[in-house]
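Lecture notes, part 5. Sequence design as translation. It can be helpful to think of inverse folding as translation between two languages: the language of shapes and the language of residues. The source text, in structure tokens, appears below.
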């Protein structure tokens, strides 16, 4: 049950003004084995966001990997993205499901299993919990525990994504705890070799029992 394609490294893009550089970084992550890409840019103008999302959609389509747009349903629909990811304040989940039939819908659930259950009921294809560790991107966000994942799996039957401060060192424990994918920004895109970093994350999932 759930979407079996949601497993492994889920690359979340950094805030980057330079579209060419961002596209190149994502291409390296895809070459290394990223299985999903989420376009996330909290500082871009609507015009730049559209430009970058379209550029990333092209490279993701070439790689056969879904591009999911973070918190901007209108942009996701306009460019024909493969999905959208919604946080608490990003709009109605059921409305997003109706706007993007057949596309991937992800929902941030923080540390709330009840929100994950409601998201699944409204049509979410995966739910994300976190932050699990100290995060440069979201230092003040709600904390989640690995134990929460096991409890969540008793109530939801869609893939579970972990987010927040995740590095290579923490990933094996998350996989063992039942996480289907890890959403990573800094440990991937701040690496001196993005392709190699992506490959190391991908190898951790390849070596784990499914």
């Amino acid at each position: 049950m759930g979407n079996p394609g949601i497993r492994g490294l889920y690359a979340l893009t950094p805030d980057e003004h330079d579209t060419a550089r961002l596209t190149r970084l994502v291409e390296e992550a895809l070459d290394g084995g990223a299985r999903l890409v989420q376009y996330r840019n909290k500082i871009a103008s609507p015009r730049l966001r559209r430009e970058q999302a379209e550029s990333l959609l092209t490279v993701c389509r070439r790689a056969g990997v879904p591009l999911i747009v973070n918190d901007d349903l209108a942009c996701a629909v306009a460019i024909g993205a493969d999905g959208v990811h919604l946080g608490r304040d990003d709009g109605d989940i059921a409305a997003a499901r109706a706007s993007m039939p057949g596309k991937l819908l992800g929902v941030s659930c923080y540390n709330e299993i009840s929100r994950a259950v409601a998201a699944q009921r409204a049509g979410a294809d995966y739910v994300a919990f976190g932050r699990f560790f100290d995060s440069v991107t979201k230092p003040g966000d709600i904390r989640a525990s690995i134990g929460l994942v096991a409890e969540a799996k008793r109530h939801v039957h869609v893939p579970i994504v972990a987010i927040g401060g995740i590095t290579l060192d923490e990933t094996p424990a998350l996989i063992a705890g039942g996480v289907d994918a890890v959403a990573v920004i800094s440990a991937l895109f701040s690496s001196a070799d993005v392709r190699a970093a992506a490959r190391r994350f991908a190898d951790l999932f390849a070596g784990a029992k499914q």
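The translated text above is only one of many valid answers, since several sequences can fold into similar shapes. The first helix runs from residue 19 to 32.
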